[in-house]
Design brief:
Elements (H helix, E strand, L loop, with lengths): L2 H42 L1 E2 L7 E3 L6 E4 L5 E5 H6 L2 H16 L2 H14 L4 H26 L1 H12 L11 E2 L5 H8 L9 H14 L3 H4 L3
Parallel strand pairs: 2-4
Antiparallel strand pairs: 1-2, 3-4, 3-5
Helix pairs in contact: 1-4, 3-5, 3-6, 4-5, 4-8, 5-6, 6-7
């Protein structure tokens, strides 16, 4: 075994340890954020007969998000309830249910880890943003199948025109992200493309199995 081989093995081992460390730190941080968010919701949120599946927070700005995990919760603000019609609200809630049911937080996790492990890497930041956009589109697909594209698109247009509260850290927000891109996609007839769920899994496996690509791609 040459010195080059030894160096390559040492570098690979160090990179793996660094990434695993970032994974542990990220998981612990996310768990803490979500635990605190659930505690806060227990203090300030309330049940509403009009939206039995969600917790309602008193706030005039628009907010709709889910706290993922085994004790998942869907949260909307009173501003959202006052803004949306019944069909629009149903589509937004279906969007959040999709995040919870398909565990989109786990699809995002590898990319959050890579962004934390390699904060100097532009590639890591871009990948996480793009996968987050794909996750929102996947949830849009589920909501549109149940309630139609028109209702969801109408809700997104209302969100775009209003003051929006950003989703708390560690959660997934239906009113966040690139709303214009999501509206453009909803206005386009569905194509026979590979399902987004499969695409997300393929990207995650590829990136996690080849972390060295972060150093080869431009910063």
């Amino acid at each position: 075994m040459t010195a080059g081989h030894v160096l390559a093995i040492a570098f690979g081992a160090g990179l793996a340890v660094w990434t695993l460390g970032a994974f542990a730190v990220t998981c612990r941080a996310l768990a803490g954020l979500r635990r605190r968010q659930r505690m806060l919701l227990g203090l300030v949120a309330r049940q509403d007969p009009a939206v039995r599946e969600a917790l309602v927070v008193e706030h005039p700005a628009v907010a709709a998000y889910c706290v993922p995990g085994r004790r998942a919760a869907i949260v909307v603000s009173t501003g959202t309830l006052g803004l949306l019609r019944a069909g629009e609200l149903a589509a937004v809630l279906a969007h959040e249910r999709a995040h919870v049911a398909e565990r989109h937080d786990l699809a995002l996790l590898p990319f959050t880890v890579l962004e934390r492990a390699f904060p100097w890497s532009r590639a890591a930041r871009v990948m996480r943003r793009r996968v987050a956009a794909l996750v929102e589109m996947r949830a849009d697909d589920r909501a549109a199948r149940l309630h139609g594209r028109a209702g969801l698109a109408s809700a997104l247009r209302r969100f775009r025109a209003c003051d929006r509260l950003p989703a708390p850290a560690g959660t997934l927000g239906g009113a966040d992200g690139d709303i214009d891109a999501r509206l453009d996609r909803l206005a386009t007839p569905a194509t026979a493309s590979l399902p987004l769920r499969v695409l997300l899994l393929s990207i995650a496996v590829t990136v996690v199995s080849t972390p060295l690509s972060l150093f080869l791609l431009p910063m």
